[in-house]
Design goal:
With 225 residues, this protein is of the alpha/beta class. The chain has a single domain, classed as 3-Layer(aba) Sandwich (Rossmann fold), CATH 3.40.50. The chain binds thymidine-5'-phosphate.
Length: 225
C-alpha cells in the first residue's frame, strides 16, 4: 500500500523510555513498515545522529562529563541536539520526510531534570535553544518495570562490555525515571502515547503501527481519495 504523506511537511516521531525497553527494535520495525508504504524515512538517535553529536555522545556516555554535574550534562546533550536538529532532522522534515528518533528532549527532561535535579525552567530554555520549532508530532513512550528493562539491557550487552554512565545508576534511579516518563506523558497527552513494552516485540510493533496509522496515515489516505 502506498500512502501520500503531507508532501510539504514531514512527520517527526520520537521513542522514549528507560533502559532496555526496546526503543531501537521498535523504531526499526516502524521504519521498515513506513518504507514498505513508500515513504521516505530517516532513522536516528540521541545523543548522536551527526558526527559532532556522536563525539558528544562518546564523551557523555563514558561518564567523563558526570563530575561536571547534571546542568553541564544537560547543556552538552542540548548542544548535541542543536547540531542534530539543524543538520539532520529539520532538513528531512522540510522536504516532507519522516524522522524516527531514538530519544530526544524528553530524555533530558527525565534524566537531567526529574532525576538530575536541573529545574524545569532552565531545561525549557535549553530545549527552546536546541530545537526551536522542531518538536515531535508524536512521542511513543515504551513503559516497562525498571528491573525488567535493566535485565533485558544486560542480556543484550556483549560480555566484557562496560556499563555506560546511566546504566551504572541504581535500580531506584531507573524506577523513578520510569515515573518521570509517565509524568511527561500525562502532562502532554496529545503528543505522547504510552505503550506497555512487557508484551511481545510483535504485539508492541502492532500497537505502534496502529497509533501511527491513526494519527497520520488514515488522515493522509482520506485526503488522497
Ligand atoms: P541509549 O542510546 O543506549 O539509550 O543511551 C543514551 C543514554 O543517554 C541513556 O542512558 C539516556 C541518556 N540520555 C540522557 O541522560 N539525556 C538525554 O538528553 C539523552 C538524549 C540521553
Amino acid at each position: 500500500m502506498t500512502f501520500q504523506a503531507r508532501p510539504e511537511q514531514g512527520h517527526f516521531i520520537t521513542f522514549e523510555g528507560g533502559e532496555g525497553v526496546g526503543k531501537s527494535t521498535q523504531l526499526a520495525r516502524l521504519a521498515e513498515h513506513l518504507r514498505d508504504c513508500g515513504l521516505e524515512v530517516a532513522t536516528t538517535r540521541e545523543p548522536g545522529g551527526t558526527p559532532k553529536a556522536e563525539k558528544l555522545r562518546r564523551f557523555l556516555l563514558s561518564g567523563r562529563a558526570a563530575p561536571l554535574g547534571a546542568l553541564a550534562e544537560a547543556v552538552l546533550f542540548s548542544a548535541a541536539r542543536a547540531d542534530h536538529v539543524e543538520t539532520l532532522i529539520a532538513p528531512v522534515l522540510k522536504r516532507g520526510g519522516w524522522v524516527l528518533c531514538d530519544r530526544f528532549a524528553d530524555s533530558t527532561r527525565a534524566y537531567q531534570g526529574a532525576q538530575g535535579g536541573v529545574d524545569a525552567r532552565t531545561l525549557a530554555l535549553l530545549e527552546r535553544a536546541a530545537v526551536g520549532d522542531t518538536r515531535p508530532d508524536l512521542t511513543i513512550i515504551l513503559d516497562l518495570p525498571a528491573r525488567e528493562g535493566l535485565a533485558r539491557a544486560a542480556a543484550r550487552r556483549n560480555s566484557g562490555e562496560a556499563l555506560d554512565r546511566f546504566e551504572r545508576e541504581t535500580p531506584a534511579f531507573h524506577e523513578a525515571l520510569r515515573q518521570a516518563f509517565l509524568d511527561i506523558a500525562e502532562s502532554e497527552p496529545e503528543r505522547c502515547c504510552v505503550i506497555d513494552a512487557a508484551r511481545s516485540v510483535d504485539d508492541v510493533a502492532r500497537a505502534v503501527r496502529a497509533i501511527v496509522h491513526d494519527r497520520f496515515l488514515a488522515h493522509a489516505a482520506q485526503a488522497a481519495q
